[in-house]
Write a structure and sequence with these properties.
single chain; 278 residues; Conserved hypothetical protein from pyrococcus furiosus pfu- 392566-001, ParB domain; 3 domains; four-stranded mixed β-sheet; 12 helices; 6% strand; elongated
Length: 278
């Protein structure tokens, strides 16, 4: 690394700056600009050997507005292309007060970089674990950030404005089309996001409970049928063939049923051995 000075006009923004971070809040930028006007740039701008900014885009913007002739820089000649890309993400991840959506975009970019790092074979799962360890958080939390990127901007803004918890917002991805439509319509009308989600999720959970009850009763009916008629099915098997459709329609259903019965058998055995509550 080498400390030098550069003319602000000679420095180029990182190509991912706008797509990953975007502008600072107006109040935060004004505070930064006022500080630079009073004290100058006390933290050098980090750049590559090609004058691409890794850390300090808003300091450069303020310097141009204040007509500063030069700014202090650190030339990161110790970084290769991939290392520079990671430094761009890490520096801003640590320094800036990122909103949840911004943080999610940074983490997504960082995972992609780790997955294609030369000389290392990170799978997506391993990359998530590595990032979670660095940030002292869980993989589940990282997944929630990624899920947030799958929600509309109205949901992302609600989380950024502390009107909605991240754990609640990501449940949007599990809603059906009509539920999503209802949520967005009400939020766009100005209803509090927290209340909107509470109402829709309460309805969704009720529907889920009813469906689970129906499935449990169906399982009981299937078991009763097997218990009563298994021996009859055994000796009538050759007569039952062809009663419910063509082989290409019936065989996949029977195969999946066999797998299901094997899974149920496994759970029942575990319950018997360990007295677990299924």
């Amino acid at each position: 690394m080498e400390y030098q000075t550069r003319k602000p006009a000679d420095l180029q923004p990182h190509p991912d700056q706008d797509s990953v971070y975007g502008p600072l809040r107006a109040s935060d930028y004004q505070a930064l600009r006022d500080d630079i006007q009073q004290h100058g740039i006390t933290q050098p701008i980090e750049i590559t050997t090609d004058n691409v900014v890794l850390d300090g885009h808003h300091r450069i913007k303020a310097a141009k507005e204040l007509s500063m002739e030069s700014v202090p820089v650190v030339v990161r000649d110790d970084l290769d292309k991939n290392g520079a890309a990671l430094r761009f993400l890490d520096a801003n991840l640590i320094r800036r007060q990122l909103g949840p959506a911004e943080k999610a975009r940074v983490l997504k970019h960082r995972m992609r970089l780790l997955c294609r790092t030369e000389g290392r074979s990170f799978s997506e799962s391993e990359a998530k674990k590595a990032i979670a360890k660095e940030l002292n958080t869980s993989v589940r939390t990282i997944d929630r950030y990624f899920q947030l990127l799958q929600t509309p901007v109205e949901i992302q803004n609600a989380v950024s404005d502390s009107q909605l918890q991240l754990t609640t917002a990501v449940r949007f991805t599990g809603m059906n089309f009509e539920q999503r439509k209802a949520v967005l319509k009400r939020i766009k009308k100005g209803e509090p996001p927290k209340k909107v989600f509470r109402d829709v999720l309460a309805s969704k959970d009720k529907q889920k409970t009813n469906r689970e009850t129906d499935l449990c009763m169906a399982y009981v009916d299937i078991f009763d049928t097997l218990q009563k008629h298994a021996s009859d099915f055994d000796w009538l098997a050759h007569l039952l063939v062809g009663l419910v459709g063509e082989p290409e329609d019936v065989i996949p259903v029977l195969d999946s049923s066999i797998r299901l019965l094997e899974k149920l058998r496994s759970h029942e055995q575990r319950r018997k051995l360990h007295e677990i509550d299924i």
